[in-house]
Design a protein that fits this description.
heterodimer, A: mainly alpha, MetI-like fold, 2 domains, B: alpha/beta, 6-stranded mixed beta sheet, 9 helices, binds adenosine-5'-triphosphate, binds magnesium ion
């Protein structure tokens, strides 16, 4: 049995990659290319690489491979930006809090209103006061000093936390019976979507302060976060609207005929089904939002990418930018990849009651 | 509960001179109908004659634009801020079941009683189990609607409506989306319900059901009620020409 299996496997390979002499040649060449590239990469990344922090830039210059010692030397700048050195444990802890909070709220066991509210309420408060300090004997660290991974996570999480509910509100307003409400909402959504995110961030950072009365002017960071949340909401609102359109009209009618009121119809009947329809596009939107956090660099924030620039940008490490970017790419990858795997898990789980 | 409890004399449903437009199209013209408590009405008529529109006006899924409708003594008009209070007394069963696909059968049944009537989960589940038993599918309680046959889904839909313990039940062609072998299982449930004294308005072309259950059969055409009679009379001696034509079509196939 096993031999039949393996020959048929070999047979499959033969048929797919070596059907004619010419195609066999192409296959061999591609294989050779892949092996060479793979080997070069392996050699660069591991075999000839410098890992230890001790030798400094000189050890790297001597070696042929990657200079991971730049990470070992400068990881604190990449991860924490300009956050005061002796307080950086707080920034690290804050990141851990966000990760725990996100992981917890991804577990089906936490999907009740009370538990989610508890997790997020506690999590965000903890995150905020860890970073900001000023309570319980923690030194106060102003928003302008936040940076690195903690800032990236802060912007991402608060963009989603503000943007997601806002998107639901916008989507509901957009399908309002009253034409002036639905049209105005549609206009707002379309306007926000026709602007590039960079210009929105810039407007909220630089222009808005001139228009707001003094008591409404918060720190630049919060204005920027709000701008980015608005941008997120405009796109996500259209995704949710699409999801709502996919729910048959009979669903709302059935709920109405049972005497279920507007808010319960929305929250218990329409939105759960709309979100299921909209899930793939929604996950996509979260991924985009995560990557777009790096745009805050244009208004002078040092999120992880900007901190990375700073990490190699100062004199002695300038040659090691590839390694720094590879490291940051790995961090992005870990977050974004888990996000999309989680999306796939959700889709499978939600498919249970389908058909 | 509607604040003015109807007296025994007050009919369950009273429709007076009701008209309804879709744009400039007149879907209902001058409908008059009174349904006493405990009475069973069967509505039939050709496609597009306004049967669904009329029955949907009774729980205000459609708004009429002329005449008056009273349900359990309360008039349906723009002032009914409490339309939900009337809807909870008026159950409805749809042609395409309209079960909530993201909830189990049991969840479908307990949702409205818990949200609308404020009943505790344990009590709502006990009621739901009782009605699921009544429609003869207690063993499907933990399944999702998509895992059931059409006939089973429609029986769940009936149980879901009954869980609100309504005083009136509306049926809009409950069996026309079903395969022939499933029709009787749904009709049997409806017959039982009728025998227990429920006030019912059924749009259906199941003439056997009409003969067995109806107190009155109503024939609609082009937005009007053109004939109204007890079943024996309706089937043996239809007065209107269009009714005769319709009956000959329905009964031959
Ligand atoms: N939402 C709507 N907008 C416009 N016209 C409508 C709408 N709903 C129904 N109509 C029209 O009103 C008329 C009556 O429709 P209704 O659904 O009440 O008929 P019906 O008797 O239930 O027919 P069927 O047996 O096919 O269900 C039809 O001509 C239909 O085209
Ligand atoms: Mg109809």
């Amino acid at each position: 049995m096993a031999s039949i299996h393996s020959t048929s496997g070999l047979e499959g390979i033969r048929r797919r990659f070596f059907p004619t002499p010419f195609q066999s040649l192409l296959s061999l060449l591609s294989l050779a290319l892949l092996v060479t590239i793979g080997w070069k990469l392996l050699d660069w990344a591991f075999l000839s690489a410098v890992f230890s922090a001790e030798g400094g830039p000189e050890a790297c210059r001597a070696a042929a491979g990657a200079c991971w010692s730049v990470i070992a030397n400068r990881w604190r700048i990449i991860m924490f930006g300009l956050y005061p050195y002796e307080e950086q444990w707080r920034s690290a802890l804050a990141c851990a809090v966000v990760v725990v909070m996100v992981v917890l709220s991804c577990l089906p066991a936490f999907w009740t209103g009370k538990r989610i509210a508890l997790v997020w309420g506690l999590g965000t408060t903890l995150f905020y006061f860890l970073l900001k300090g000023g309570v319980l004997g923690l030194n106060r660290v102003g928003e302008e000093a936040w940076g690195g991974l903690a800032l990236t996570l802060f912007i991402f999480v608060s963009t989603c936390l503000i943007g997601f509910p806002l998107s639901i509100v916008l989507a509901l307003l957009r399908r309002s019976q009253l034409p002036w409400i639905s049209r105005t909402t549609g206009l707002i959504i379309d306007c926000v979507r026709s602007l590039p995110l960079v210009s929105i961030l810039f407007a909220f950072a630089v222009v808005v302060p001139f228009m707001l009365p003094g008591w409404l002017q918060s720190d630049k960071l919060y204005r920027v976060v709000f701008g980015s949340a608005l941008f997120f909401a405009a796109y996500q609102a259209e995704i949710i609207r699409g999801g709502l359109q996919g729910v048959p009209r009979g669903q709302e009618e059935a709920a109405m005929s049972l005497g279920i009121g507007y808010w319960h119809r929305i929250s218990r009947i329409l939105l759960p089904q709309a979100m299921r329809n909209a899930l793939p596009a929604t996950i996509n939107q979260f991924v985009i939002a995560f990557k777009e956090t790096s745009l805050v660099i244009v208004v002078g924030f040092f999120e992880i990418l900007a901190s990375g620039n700073a990490a190699y940008g100062t004199g002695q490490w300038t040659f090691a930018y590839v390694e720094v970017y590879a490291f940051i790419a790995l961090i992005y990858f870990v977050f974004v990849f888990s996000l999309s795997r989680y999306g796939a898990f959700l889709e499978r789980r939600m498919a249970v009651g389908e058909r | 509960m509607p604040s003015s409890r109807p007296t025994q004399a007050e009919p369950a449903i009273r429709i007076e001179n009701v008209t309804k437009h879709y744009g400039s199209f007149l879907a209902l013209r001058n409908i008059n109908l009174s349904v006493a408590r405990g009475e069973k009405i069967v509505v039939c008529g050709p496609s597009g004659s306004g049967k669904s529109t009329m029955i949907r006006c009774i729980n205000r899924l459609e708004e009429h634009d002329g005449g008056r409708i009273f349900v359990l003594g309360t008039e349906l008009n723009d002032d009914v801020g409490n339309i939900d209070e009337i809807r909870r007394e008026v159950g409805m069963v749809f042609q395409h079941f309209n079960l909530f696909p993201h909830m189990t059968v049991l969840e479908n049944c307990v949702l409205a009683p818990m949200l609308v009537r404020g009943i505790s989960r344990s009590e709502a589940e006990a009621t739901a189990k009782r009605y699921l038993e009544k429609v003869r599918i207690p063993e499907q309680a933990s399944k999702f609607p998509g895992q059931l046959s059409g006939g089973q889904q429609q029986r769940v839909a009936i149980a879901r409506a009954l869980c609100m313990q309504p005083q009136i039940m509306l049926f809009d062609e409950p069996t026309s989306a079903l395969d022939p072998e499933m029709i009787s299982e749904v009709l049997d449930v409806m017959v039982t319900l009728a025998s227990e004294g429920m006030t019912m308005v059924c749009v259906t072309h199941e003439m056997g059901f009409a003969r067995r259950v109806a107190d009155r059969v109503i024939f609609m055409d082009r937005g009007e009620i053109i004939e109204e009679a007890p079943p024996e009379e309706f089937f043996s001696a239809p007065k209107n020409e269009r009714t005769q034509q319709f009956l000959s079509q329905v009964q031959t196939h």
